[in-house]
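Q: A reviewer asked whether we had any structural model of the full assembly, not just the individual parts. We don't, so I'm hoping you can provide one. Inputs are below.
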Amino acid sequence: MARKTTPDPQAVFLNVPYDKAYEPVFIGLVAALLALGRKPRCTLELKDRGQGRPSRIWQLLEGASVSLHDLSCVKPPPRFNMPFELGLAFALKKYRGRHQWYVLEDRIGRLDRTLSDLKGTEQHFHHRQPAQAISCVLDMLGTTRKDPDPRRVRKLATDLTKVAVDLKRSYNRRDVFYAAPFRKFMAAGIQLAQAAGVIRA
Amino acid sequence: MLAKKKLTAKEFCGKVGFPTSRRARVVPKMSRRHLTKPASATEIRDALGLQQKDLDDATKRLAALSLNG
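A: Here is a predicted structure for the entire assembly that you could use as a starting point for your response.
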């Protein structure tokens, strides 16, 4: 039987589409999570050690106390990864109880048609805008004290966008959703957040 | 020597300065559950398994982009 992993209270699993059009929203989410002192985790950091992708996703999800699921990628061909991982998070919450999951969407009312089982679940709308994505994260995970100023978080996202442009040029990639540029992107993001004074060393 | 008087919960709260009403005691405890201590840069780096070469690259890249604060 698989061993239970204790969830890291600061880890947040990002279940989002790895798509060029989604990159600005992703940058906003990462900037806001770093500014809150959370650890953004996603499947890009996983190395395949032969146990298969679903097992690795489960391991990451189990190790995070919170997961964010973006269900806005419904263009044809539809991507089923995000609903699948949301299902895993739902099961984790149901049977282990120590997990919080949140749903992100792009358009108001669409989820009621695409995934009507979640009717009544609170959704957070980013409208494909990084600034809105930042507000969503601050709404979901912010506290009433010591929250970073949203303007500083937006500045962090702007700087991270410049880093992403440079990384894509270096690696000759269309987006940062590849293991090597992603590691460098995260390393730069942490340094920027530290330099901006939103997280401690 | 006199035996030490055992304090009631209410007396103890009053002595150490805790709020004594049930509402005042319970509400902050509930809200504390939602407060997660922010991670430090080192903790985030360790969790993500970033290596020294990634950090060195980030330092150089941020300097080249004049983003190093």
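A: Points you may want to mention in the reply: Residues 52-64 of chain B form the longest helix (13 residues). Chain B touches chain A through 30 residues (CB under 8 Å).
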